[in-house]
């Protein structure tokens, strides 16, 4: 583990190491607001255990992005640099920052009202 990195206990992946730059992103107000957004919308009303948030989901995507880079590096040592891996992890961490509450339900509503195709 590097200086200023953190270890976080994830419900799915166990203990994950978070790089220092990702820690700085996680510690922002913008990122922390993901704690209040349900990843599965209103699904928890039918399945009470389906309560994970976009915050937890983003941590998992960051972790899996790092794992994927590590696997690529084994087979293609010159393909992935530590900087590349960090960029993938940051992308995984930040990919949901633009979502609001019920955002996917909202997309369906907008498509229906505007008769727009987003393919």
Textual characterization of the structure:
The chain has helices at residues 20-26, 29-32, 54-75, 82-94, 103-114; strands at 6-10, 14-18. With 119 residues, it is mostly helical. Strands 1-2 form a two-stranded antiparallel ribbon. It is globular, with a radius of gyration of 17 Å. It starts with 5 loop residues before the first strand and ends in a 5-residue tail after the last helix.
Features:
mainly alpha; two-stranded antiparallel sheet; 5 helices
| Overall mean confidence score, pLDDT | 85
> Strand arrangement, largest sheet?
1-2
Helical content (DSSP H or I, runs of 4+): 40-55%
The main pleated sheet reads as: 2 strands, antiparallel
Structural class: mainly alpha
Number of strands: 2
Unreliable stretches (pLDDT < 50, length at least 5) are: none
Q: What fraction of the residues are assigned to beta strands by DSSP?
A: 5-15%
What's the helix count? 5
Gap between N and C termini, in Å?
42 Å
Radius of gyration: 17 Å
Order of helices and strands: EEHHHHH
Shape: globular
């Amino acid at each position: 583990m590097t200086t200023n990195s953190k270890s976080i206990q994830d419900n799915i992946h166990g203990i994950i190491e978070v790089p220092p730059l990702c820690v700085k992103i996680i510690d922002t107000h913008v990122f922390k607001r993901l704690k209040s957004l349900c990843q599965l919308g209103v699904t928890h009303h039918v399945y009470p255990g389906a309560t994970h948030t976009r915050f937890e989901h983003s941590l998992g995507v960051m972790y899996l992005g790092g794992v994927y880079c590590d696997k690529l590096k084994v087979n293609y040592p010159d393909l992935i640099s530590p900087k590349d891996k960090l960029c993938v992890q940051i992308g995984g961490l930040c990919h949901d920052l633009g979502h609001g509450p019920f955002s996917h339900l909202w997309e369906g509503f907008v498509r229906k009202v505007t008769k727009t195709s987003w393919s």
